[in-house]
Amino acid sequence: MRDHSLFHQRRLLLLFLLITLTQLCPKAESAACHVDDESGLLGFKSAITADPSGLIASWKRGTNCCTWHGIICRDGTRVTSISISGHPGPGKPNKSLSGVISSSLTKVKFLEGIYFRDLHHLTGPFPDILFVLPNIKYVYIEGCKLSGPIPKSIGNLTRLRALSLARNRFTGPIPSSISKLTQLTQLNLAGNLLTGTVPAGIQHLHKLTLLSLDGNKLSGPIPNFFRTFSNLRILRLQHNKFTGEIPTSIEPLAPNLAFLDLGHNLLTGKIPDFLGKFKALDALILAHNNLSGTVPKSFANLTKIFNLDLAHNNLVDPFPELNVKGIESLDLSYNKFHLNKIPKWVISSPIIFSLKLAKCGLKIRLDHFNPSETYFYEIIDLSENKICGSPVTLLNRMDYLVSFKASGNKLRFNLESLRIVNTLKELDLSRNLVFGKVPKAVSALDRLNVSYNHLHGAIPASATKVPVSSFVGNDGLCGAPLPPCK
Ligand SMILES: *[C@@H]1O[C@H](CO)[C@@H](O)[C@H](O)[C@H]1NC(C)=O
Ligand SMILES: *[C@@H]1O[C@H](CO)[C@@H](O)[C@H](O)[C@H]1NC(C)=O
Ligand SMILES: *[C@@H]1O[C@H](CO)[C@@H](O)[C@H](O)[C@H]1NC(C)=O
Ligand SMILES: *[C@@H]1O[C@H](CO)[C@@H](O)[C@H](O)[C@H]1NC(C)=O
Ligand SMILES: *[C@@H]1O[C@H](CO)[C@@H](O)[C@H](O)[C@H]1NC(C)=O
């Protein structure tokens, strides 16, 4: 399946997997499992009130528990890992478990890893079993519905190598005792309802390769404490309420950091020069903050960057010339740039799939925008510029386009000459000089806006569900949702 817009998620996922897989060592052998393990697992099962898709249906008394779904044993007898996922993969239906995590899991004494992912209806507080299991090292309880505070005693879990409680409903602050978990290589508390500031003690977690605190309600400054994190590859702090500047202490992360997302916060000040030294950086997302000043010239050295998102800040000209080999996704929209032209390094990129340059002061004739490769293009947003001419030649080269937005320009072309590919879901041409009739093919779109143009004739009957505001302001359009044709 062609699915290029997932490049980054995939890249990130791969990074996670590489780190995670090295910690799993599946070994299923034939001897029967230990009686305590069987009893502990069956106790877990009895606290599950619904298993509609039979995720743990194979867990049956008297059968070898090392062969049960999701169970991994060492030496064919002792259970070392439980791995149950409710999200088997794209295209396959989701599964879920309802119930709570039973304390009888503490009988499974050799348990080293718990991997519960996307079980959606698994509820209850922070699992106390973690305090009792003597060998537990890897805990991934993600996409479930655990709630309540993260206990202060979390600092007791000093043997943990990885802890993810991502996408649950934990509330309250991150306990400062978390600083004692110095063996952690991954800490992921993303997608909860955590509040307060980031405890300074996190700086003691020297071994972290991944720190994800995104999608919470954390506030205060981003702590100036990254100097000690020489192994950090992924730093995700986006979608919080962080204030202040991008801390200077992230500079030492330059050799290894591959992914930096500080977007959707309340950050101010300039983009620091030293970010240009982050040669391993693959994705840099600073969007939706209040950053000001220019983009540093040093960005010319970010030759490996695939995903650059600086949208919705207060950045000003001049935008530096970059030396990227192939950008995949670029968003510079809604700053104070006057780029005039689409940068050369964008036009020459062989793998770009998402280009967003809304309100970037572009003054081009769209017919002259002739990217060297169009195969991967899925998303284009050129809204609110001074672009004239016609997008027809460009768009008719793109076989897999999903979204084209160019509202508030001076595009002048016959809408009927635009090829509407099967993949197209969104077309916004509002406030231009588009003429001709509305083609029937637009009814396949999820979102259409051709308001304030010079279209005429009857709106195709198949497009009557489109909101009226998508058609108003044309010279001669008629028919539902507008008034009937005469
Ligand atoms: C399945 O779960 C995933 C991850 O939680 C979610 O993104 C997706 O929308 C779900 N799909 C369906 C069909 O519910
Ligand atoms: C954490 O450790 C302290 C000190 O050893 C102990 O008193 C406390 O009971 C432990 N808490 C839990 C939940 O295990
Ligand atoms: C963003 O920063 C500018 C100064 O650079 C300031 O005038 C403006 O109020 C800030 N906006 C927000 C939403 O904080
Ligand atoms: C790029 O890196 C080189 C070597 O580290 C440095 O000398 C040069 O000044 C940098 N370029 C910019 C524009 O910062
Ligand atoms: C269509 O665009 C106009 C002008 O840009 C806007 O006011 C209107 O809300 C849009 N309608 C829809 C349905 O997007």
UniProtKB/TrEMBL annotation:
Record domain Leucine-rich repeat-containing N-terminal plant-type: where: 36-73
Highest taxon of the lineage: Eukaryota
Membrane topology category: Single-pass membrane protein
Keywords: Glycoprotein, Leucine-rich repeat, Membrane, Receptor, Repeat, Signal, Transmembrane, Transmembrane helix
InterPro entries: Leu-rich_rpt (IPR001611), LRR_dom_sf (IPR032675), LRR_N_plant-typ (IPR013210), StomDev_PlantInt_Reg (IPR052941)
Signal peptide boundaries: 1-30
Subcellular location: Membrane
Keyword set includes Glycoprotein: yes
Predominant place of localization: membrane
Pfam families: LRR_1 (PF00560), LRR_8 (PF13855), LRRNT_2 (PF08263)
Gene Ontology CC entries for this record: membrane
GO annotation terms (biological process): defense response; post-embryonic development; response to other organism
Cross-referenced PANTHER family: OS01G0149700 PROTEIN (PTHR48004), OS09G0491612 PROTEIN (PTHR48004:SF99)
Name of protein: Receptor-like protein 12
Native organism: Morus notabilis
Lineage: Eukaryota, Viridiplantae, Streptophyta, Embryophyta, Tracheophyta
